[in-house]
Amino acid sequence: MNDKLRSVINAMLAMQRHPWEQGVCAQALYELGCDALWLPMAYDAVKRMNKDGRLAMVGGGATVCDPASNGEVCLRAYQKTGDRFFMDGAGKMLEYLMEKAPRTSDGLICHSTRSFFEGYTTGQVWADGVYMMPPFLAVMGELDEALTQIRGYRKHLYDAENKLFYHIKDVDGDRFVRKLHWATGNGWVLMGLAGVIAAAKEKGRTEIAEELTGYLVEVLDGMRRFATADGRFKDILDSEDSFIDGTSAMMMAATVYRGIKEGFLDVKYREYADKAFRAVTGKVDRYGIIREVCGCPDFVAEGTSAEAQAAYIMAYAWKK
Hints:
- With 320 residues, the chain is mostly helical.
- It is 54% helix and 7% strand.
- Helix 4 runs antiparallel to helix 5 and helix 11 (247-262) packs across helix 12 (270-281).
- The relative contact order is 0.12.
- The model has no long low-confidence stretch (mean pLDDT 97).
């Protein structure tokens, strides 16, 4: 591990985290192989579980999908340690999604129990959710449900003309909440699809892996058309007025490196990942904080974020 990566990890661990941030940060450290870090994070995700089964619910409130991003590390912690504490957490998270979580009128798991936007129903799906939930469903053996959810996301959010996902749709209200090609949202889609593809291949469900690989390549090609000269993206992919975002570039890179290593992506994509990785590496400051990314807490302006740190770590993990 080089000094720059270590500084990125340290900065990430110093950042306050909501449920999805705890999940993606722990997952990044799991993928990097830092057992001393992700195991305690999985432990804390279970300790901070709501009575209804949602993991890592610090500041989560209404969120439904985001807590599931902690689920895989809980499963992996059980597999590594044999401690039922972790499996109980993963099992309760799965039970919540399958039996308790609110769903849209057409059966999709809602992103949250309330709308964060005035005038819309709670029956919403967000592109972010492709990462937050289906990979966990898949590793827990619910591959068919994971596929159903992904197909639903595509039905409501996929822009076939541009091969990109829009951000948020109020399914029950039959209108878009945020009809924008948000770069980080499409990055979440890529990483989520990669996770389900890997689980499908591991479980011998090649038909699912092949279907989802087709979806992934479409979005990857759609994003590549909007890459800047150094391999990063605008926050809104097709908006010249938007700021530069490195988070989505690292999500793309992590997906490409993983896809090549696990055999579901052509090596031709590596040059795009390498260019983006070099650019974002150059934006790590002396504190280990990655600059020029879509920033918390609202993710509508340039700033810093735990998910940017995590995406960089994931890209490094799969690149090495």
